[in-house]
Amino acid sequence: MYNEKSAIAKWNADMYDRNETGTRDVEFALSVIGGTPRNILEIACGSGRFLVPLARAGHIVTGLDFDEYMLEKISQKAAGLSNITWRRADAVKDEWGTGFDVVMLAGNFLFNLISDMDYEKAQELLIRKAADSLKPGGSVYIDYSYTMHPEAWFDNPGEVFIWEGADSGGNTGHMLLLGSSFDRESGMTYFTRRFELTLAGGTEIKEDIPQSKHFATLEQIHSWLSASGFTIEEEYGGYSREPVSESTDRAIIWARKN
User: Fold this and answer.
1) What CATH number is given to the structural domain containing 118?
2) What is the residue-averaged pLDDT of the chain?
3) Cα–Cα distance for residue pair 233/139, rounded to 1 Å
């Protein structure tokens, strides 16, 4: 029997790699980290969108990700680089390693983590694990899609088209988000991720995957950082270094481990 989840994961990795090609967030991260070579750990490195440019900038980089199909894409991008490594790991359950100068929680991973534990506790745990992995004086870099009005983002009973296309194996399809709702009291958002694929051999797959995620407020992130011994040195609401405000859509934080 065909492994449907594997087919979907492979197709999704190809679509991500093809569609998520922006560089502004990567360039901004490089500007904050600076030019002095550092030992950097990226959590949820995916297909290397941040990891490879960091290595090309001269940093020693290590990437962790759970998605084997995303990780498979790094090798070709990193050809000729000796200062880059990556491995498959569960960011919540597995050890990250120690002795890093910088830990990166970029690409909105704080919202998009996958775990079977309480979502808010898992988010806080990522901050603690970042502290444990850093040298004294090291820094964590967080880039998180953020709004002061999450209900405007997440209360959407309709369909949101994400992407469509054919993967490298000839499987075609699309992904939608359906019926999103937001609970202001708990900070939880609920929706369904729908995949509809036609495999190269003609088999059709339709899979609805219920999702629940916790939207952390800036105050919560600040408290988690403080509890883990971090001091915030820089904080922005966007890539033009504007402060977080009613009109911004990100929270970008550079915090130092005391």
Assistant:
1) 3.40.50.150
2) 96
3) 9
Note the pLDDT of residue 5.
83
- State whether 76 and 19 are in the same domain: yes
pTM of the predicted model, to two decimals? 0.95
Q: Are residues 59 and 117 in the same domain?
A: yes
Range of the domain at 202: 150-213
Q: Is the pLDDT of residue 254 over 70?
A: yes
- Residues 163, 61: Cα–Cα separation, whole Å: 30
Q: Which residue stretches of 20-149 are H helix?
A: 24-33, 51-56, 68-71, 74-77, 109-112, 119-133
Ramachandran region, residue 148 (left: φ > 0; alpha: ψ -120 to 50; beta: rest): alpha
Q: What's the CA gap between 51 and 109, in Å, rounded?
A: 14
DSSP letters, 159-193, are EEEEEEEE-TTS-EEEEEEEEEEEETTTTEEEEEE
Ordered DSSP codes for 136-158: EEEEEEEEEE--S-HHHHH-EEE
156 and 184 fall within a common domain: yes
Cα angle: 75, vertex 81, 86; to 5 degrees: 50
116, 158: one domain:
no
What six digits make up the tokens of 70? Answer: 């995303």
